[in-house]
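Action item from last meeting closed. Structure (200 res):
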């Protein structure tokens, strides 16, 4: 049985995200990906950056099965077995005490706000000095949606779960700052998304 799942959005956004990751990651970086989903991003990025060690994770057991299936299918030695990480759990931990980078793609808007706070707390705890947190997704700016499509997306998310929603960039930056992270880059991405680079 093939447990690999696929996501159309992963195929659409992986190239522009890779470009930014190649810009900000060290060639030998130890990277923790939060909420890796299907695992397609993990294997795509790891194949393109063979010196980077990629640690995927997801709270969902079916997602972890898909990640592991993709990992085995691709046979990439720099993709590790997925971890079960729930950002909303208090003081979540990983086998490593430090990473050069954390990556969170389409996480902040498709989760409760507590998960964003957990992401920032974990980044503050786990990222090496000078390391980065890279997030990707839709954001409001100054309390306003940046495009009608993002407003519709926000409504769809909240109908799915009232705790979800497109977050305001200022609120996300404030949560990061409380954990010792500074917002260094705001990169305009396709489909009205942003990539944010925080440095510790």
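Sequence:
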């Amino acid at each position: 049985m093939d447990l690999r799942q696929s996501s159309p959005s992963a195929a659409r956004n992986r190239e522009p995200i890779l470009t930014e990751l190649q810009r900000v990651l060290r060639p030998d970086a130890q990277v923790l990906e939060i909420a890796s989903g299907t695992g397609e991003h993990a294997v795509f990025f790891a194949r393109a950056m063979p010196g980077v060690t990629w640690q995927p994770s997801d709270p969902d057991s079916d997602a972890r099965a898909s990640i592991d299936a993709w990992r085995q299918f691709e046979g990439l030695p720099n993709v590790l077995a997925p971890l079960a990480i729930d950002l909303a759990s208090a003081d979540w931990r990983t086998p490593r005490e430090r990473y050069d980078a954390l990556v969170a793609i389409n996480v902040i808007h498709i989760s409760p706000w507590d998960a964003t706070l957990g992401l920032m707390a974990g980044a503050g705890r786990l990222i090496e000095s000078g390391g980065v947190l890279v997030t990707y997704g839709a954001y409001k700016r100054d309390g306003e949606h940046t495009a009608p499509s993002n407003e519709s997306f926000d409504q769809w998310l909240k109908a799915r779960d009232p705790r979800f929603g497109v977050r305001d960039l200022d609120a996300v930056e404030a949560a990061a700052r409380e954990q010792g992270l500074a917002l260094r880059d705001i990169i305009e991405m396709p489909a009205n998304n942003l990539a944010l680079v925080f440095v510790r």
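Note appended to the action item: The chain has a mean pLDDT of 95.
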